[in-house]
Amino acid sequence: MIRTSSRAIRPLPTRGLLACALCAFRLFSSAWACFAQESPPPQPAIRSAAELVKIDASVLDKGGNFVGGLEQKKFRVLDAGAERPIVYFAPVEAPAQILVMVETTPAVYLIHNEHVFAAYALLDGLATEDQVALVSYDQAPHALLPFTPDKSALAAALGQIQYTLGSGQLNFYDSISTAVDWLAPVSGKKALVLLTTGLDSSPPVRWDALVQKLRASDVVIYSVALGGSLRRFPGDNRKLPRNSRNQDSQQDAWSPTDAGAANPLSFSKADDALNALAAITGGRVYFPQSSKDFVPMYREIASALRHQYVLGIAPVHDAQFHPLTVQLLNDNGQPQPAAGAARHSVPAFRLFARQGYLAPQP
């Protein structure tokens, strides 16, 4: 079934309109309340953000396989270039809380069969104890399924998503912000998986607000960029990256003004935004070019969620943004060459971790 925005509706009396509005509000509130009331499975004790900066890190070898079994002494964390002691460490294979957010615009409807069926590969790759939830978004986020360990429930919910036909506001940034607000009180491993074009029609100030929120958050964002055939136009020679920026290529947070904010629905702008979300949070972004690309990408996301290290440092209390660099050390305690360090050799590893943190108030 497709939800359209042009359906004719017979006017209701004022009292009826008020009753319908109140009912809709209660239903929507109840859906979000279900999310908040879910009790996540036990997680390793991690102190509050005011006492600890939590850094989720993933390490891949040159073959693209996740590296497990590393000890704390193999990692070094630099806060604005200065080494900081690691006061918390866990090679986490504990259950994860994964919120899947799906765009429901006409552009996504055209290819929804490809990415929705492939998303089952993500579910197959998750651990039994992992909990999943589902949200759709267009002008606003819509809660569809509260957290559950039942992966078949998410598969069924994905198949029942309704898509909107017609034009309207697409508030991608604000929808992410709402999802991050909900995930904030969840302890342990938590991730936001976005199935999205990355397009947003809101003003640049909404992106700036989202960046500030993500810098103070420990949510990791994985994005699958939808609309592959639509992202490349005749004469467009851009080579779309297969994967996101990583910790080895630190850059300042991208802004919509860097990619022509005058055109709010630019795919170039969307590509840069998705890359920036990955860099800020330590996640990844994938740009499938054909339907066969979806399955391996979803499998890699599931593998990433299972193979993470959690590092913790004590924050500086100055209310400023602090760039972070996570290094992997060799047996002599020296930083190993990372991706991009040597032009003519294959890097020994790739490390993904959040770009920095917003320090708490003094």
For this entry, give a set of tags.
single chain, 362 residues, alpha/beta, Rossmann fold, 9 helices, 16 strands, 24% strand, globular, disordered N terminus
- Can you summarize the main beta sheet? 6 strands, mixed
Tally of structural domains: 2
SS content category: alpha/beta
The dominant shape is: globular
Could you state the CATH homologous superfamily of the largest domain?
von Willebrand factor, type A domain
CATH fold title of the largest domain: Rossmann fold
| Average predicted local confidence, pLDDT | 76
CATH architecture of the largest domain: 3-Layer(aba) Sandwich
Counting DSSP E segments of at least 2 residues, the number of strands comes to 16
CATH domain class name of the largest domain:
Alpha Beta
N-to-C series of helices and strands: EHEEEEEHHHEEHEHEHEHEHEEEE
Radius of gyration: 21 Å
Report the total helices: 9
Which percent bin holds the helix content?
25-40%
Residue share in β-strands? 15-25%
Distance between the ends = 53 Å
| Sheet with the most strands: spatial strand order | 8-7-6-10-11-12
Query: Which stretches are poorly predicted, pLDDT < 50 over at least 5 residues?
Result: 1-32, 36-48, 233-252
